[in-house]
Amino acid sequence: MDEYTADAFVNREEPVPVIAVSGSDSPSSDPKGKRERLKESLGGSKDKLKEKLQDAGSGSKDYGYSLQDRLFAKLLQQVIPEEEVEELDLAPDVRSSKYINRPGFSLPLMTNNFRRFNARIGVVFVFQNRLERLLTWRKPTHTLSLLAVCTFVCLDPYLLSVIPVAAALLFVMVPAYLARHPPPPVSSIHTTSYSMNGPPLAPPRTIKPAAEMSKDFFRNMRDLQNCMDDFSTIHDAVLRIVTPPTNFSNEPLSSTIFLFLFVATCLLFITSHLLPWRLVCLLVCWTAIALGHPSIQQLLLSNHQKHLAPHERTAQSWLDAWISHDIVLDAPPETREVEIFELQRRNGGQNGEWESWMFSPGPYDPLSPQRISGDRPKGTRFFEDVAPPRGWEWGDKKWVLDLASREWVEDRMVQGVEVEIEGERWVGDLAGDKEAYEMKPIGKGKSKDLDEGGGDSKMGEWRRRRWVRMVRRKVVSDIGSIGS
């Protein structure tokens, strides 16, 4: 209590008002979201959390913890479920402790920081209170003075550099000097002026943190509580207004907004130097401050339904009609062709039978990296197990055999193979070493065809053929949300 002063800057009687905006503010009851927020708040690692709690419980770090904080840390250390933290698996987050070299979550540390923060935040709330009184015309002379300053700055933007210096002079230096040279008591002198010459008569005024359990400390808690409610209310109201037309949930409307913004960007890029920006800033400034006057607010609320609502409905109907006629979004989803190679392997030498081996995304040709390194082909044994790429779905019902075997062989510059131009369209390996494969490049008109006199050549161990199928982009029902 020794830090409490009667004339401290944080002293005030008027609370910061709570902004009331219609709308629901119900927290999410999704258990998965709660589990994710739990792990994120705990630092993402059970071992690190345990270590921090042990530090708090043992008092190894000098945070000024009381015996009650240490006992609570020990209790929390036993209550936190180990398997719950281990099972949670979150996507990489830039706010994670892996990317930020800052202390992790610690309840005693957070309690200590909150007490320190709450004892010093009063200056911000005093400034907020005075700004609200200024913008809501509590004292019209003060608001008119603000309008005069804004007018000079808008008409002559170079005066903007004078504002910080003048503010430091008028709101910091002058009050500090007057605090050290106070006027005499009113009962002892009958004049309105006094001399400020001579030595200082009072100690300098300092801004001290509000003492715990003092009146200012609880006022700060009250205003902090109201500010948290204001932020949550404004946050939800902004998202409720801005998100639906901009997140392409209504794609024609979002496309129209995108078109208007694009046209406005192009026009401003060309004509921005021709606009009278000083007059524009002056009108915006006067309009914003005038809207805070109680009489104007009542006038707008009373005349909204009578004059503005019919025009809003007319504009909305015109916009809907324009969107329905001029915004066309009936393009089909993107489609592509995917391929799979059916691989067969010969058993028992040249006279052996071909055995189905697997379906692989690559042709596994003689000079492929997998073949050279001695690795087995990768894929699936059955046709039914072939899945479309991630984010895609099948566009037709079945696979189609690629009859143009020569084309994909030439496109891939596959060497050391024979190509069937009829029948089942197999592309088989030629028997021989790797040097022989390199000496027989496949070019246009140079491939050996089994149906063109190549049947007497010795076949290798592997053969393959290509199947194709169409896929289209999959419609995603839920892409998640962006964390605040």
UniProtKB/TrEMBL annotation:
GO aspect biological process, one term: peroxisome organization
Protein name: TECPR1-like DysF domain-containing protein
Region (Disordered): 15-60
Keywords per UniProt: Membrane, Transmembrane, Transmembrane helix
Location of the protein in the cell: Membrane
TM regions (residue ranges): 146-178, 253-270, 277-296
PANTHER family documented for this protein: PEROXISOMAL MEMBRANE PROTEIN PEX29
Membrane topology of the entry: Multi-pass membrane protein
Species in which this protein is naturally found: Letharia lupina
All copies of domain TECPR1-like DysF, residue ranges: 103-469
Primary location: membrane
Skewed-composition ranges (Basic and acidic residues): 31-54
Pfam families recorded: Pex24p
GO terms under cellular component: peroxisomal membrane
